[in-house]
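Feature request disguised as a bug report, sorry. It would help if multi-protein outputs had a clear separator. Right now it looks like this:
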Amino acid sequence: VIHYGIIENYQELKKELQEKGYSFLSQTDSEVIVHLFEMYINEGNEPFSAFEKTVKKLQGAFAILLISKTDKEKIFFAKNLVPLIIGKNDKDEIFFSSSDAPLIGNATEVVYLHDRTYGYAKKGKIILVRNHEIGRFQTIEKILDKNQYMHLQQVISLRNETVHGLLPRIP
C-alpha cells in the first residue's frame, strides 16, 4: 500500500481489527488500510469489493494505491480531500501523481479525481467509481508536453518578477 494523508478514524478501526485477532507491527494509520483489506478478503470478498469496503470505512484526507497478491494485474486507488491525478499514454502505461509535474513528458492524458472517487487500473484500462456510478477513464485535460511546460515556466517566472514586492515569494 502507498498512502498519503491521514486516516482520522484509524484508532477506532485498529481497535476493531485487534478485537478480531489482527496484529499490528507499527503505530501508523497506513497499516489499518492493509488489515481492513485483508479482513474483507478473508471474508470471501473479491479484491475490488474488498477494496471498496475498505475505502468506505475510512474517514479523513487520503490518497491510496494498493496492489494485492490476490489480483496482481490491478492497482486499486482511492482519493479523498488530497490531490490524486491519473495519467496514461499511448503505450497504455498508467501513472499516479499528486501534481502535474511528474506527468509531463510521460502521460498524454490525465484525469483529476474528485473526492470519494476510487477504482482500479490495469494495463490500458482505468475504472473509476464515484457516487456509486462506474465509469471509464475519460480525458479531462491533455497534459502539456515538455516544451510547452518550459514555456509556461518562463511565463510564470516573468510574471513572478513583475509582481515581486507585491506578494511574498513562495519557495
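(second protein starts here, but nothing in the output says so)
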Amino acid sequence: DEQLLIKQVIDQLSLALENARLFQETQQALESTRYRAEAENLINDIATDFLNVNEPQYIDEVVNRSLGKLGTFLSIDRAYIFLFDPNNETMDNTHEWRLENVASYINDFRNVPRNSLPYMMRSLTRMEPFVVSNVFDIPDEASAERDEYLREGIQSILCAPIALKNRSVGF
C-alpha cells in the first residue's frame, strides 16, 4: 500500500516536472516568435520609410530615424554609419543615433584612415560582420581597435558591411 502511494506520488511529480518543462519550452518558443515578428515589423517599417522618401534632401533624416528605431529595438546606446571614400582609403562617420546621455563622436571621425583599424577592416572587406561581445576579449594583434573602443566607452560592437555592387562601401 505504502509503495503504491510512493509510486503514484513519484509518477505525479514526474508528470508535473514534464509539464513544467513543456510549458517553459512553449514560452521560449513564443518569445522567440514574438521577437522575430517584431524584427520583421521593424524591417518593414524602415523599408516603408525609405520607399516614401520623395525628395533626396530627406534621406539623411530617414537614415537617422532608422538608426534610432534599430537602436531602440536592440536596446543599444549608439548606432552609426561610416562610409568609405571613393578611393577606399579613408572613412567618415556620416550618420549617428545615440541615447541622450551618450557622447557623440560623429564630428571626431572624418577622414579616418581605413588602415587605422586593420583588424576590423579585414572582416568588413570580406563582407563579413565584425562582432565583438566583450572588448576586453579582443586579441593583442587588434590593440588599435581595443584602445579606440575603450576610449569611447564601448563594451561590445557589431559592424555589418554596407554593400554596393558586391563591394563594401561602409558599415
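Even a blank line would do. Unrelated, but nice: The radius of gyration is 24 Å.
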